[in-house]
Amino acid sequence: ELQNGASHAAAWGYVTADPAMRQWHLLVFDLEPPRQDRKYQVWLAKGEGEATQWLSAGELRVSADGSGKLKVSMPEDDAEIRALTITDEPALGADQPTGKVLLAARLKKP
Fold first, then answer.
1. Where are the beta strands (DSSP E) in the chain?
2. pLDDT at 69
């Protein structure tokens, strides 16, 4: 289950693993669409603490009803992927998370 980052109190969702297809399926609900000059970016956290490396997993598009879904490919070296995080970023994106955390989940090894 995705944990709420407090900036979007009603938002919730979950992540399921599909080991055979080497994908995670991300589903969110009750998340307000981003402003025009912003986007929601999904990140994979590799490692922990100060050594965390952030890998962009794509853009989460949210419909007017607050729902969104995204298939995230598992990287080949997925053994150290610890979490999935959704942040509010500038429309052009970012190389690492810079905006507010909207939702986040610890990932378990499938």
1. 3-4, 12-18, 23-29, 38-46, 53-60, 68-73, 81-90, 101-106
2. 97
CA 102, CA 69: separation in Å to the nearest integer? 15
- The 10s digit of each residue's pLDDT in 66-96 is 999 999 998 887 778 999 999 999 999 899 9
Cα–Cα dist 98/49, whole Å: 16
Amino acid at 99: G
Looking up tokens 């998340």 gives: 31
- Label the pairing between strands 68-73 and 23-29: antiparallel
What does each C-alpha distance from 101 to 23, 33, 78 come to in angstroms? 22, 14, 22
Q: Name the residue among 27, 28, 18, 3 with its Cα closest to residue 78.
A: 18
Can you give the pTM of this predicted structure?
0.89
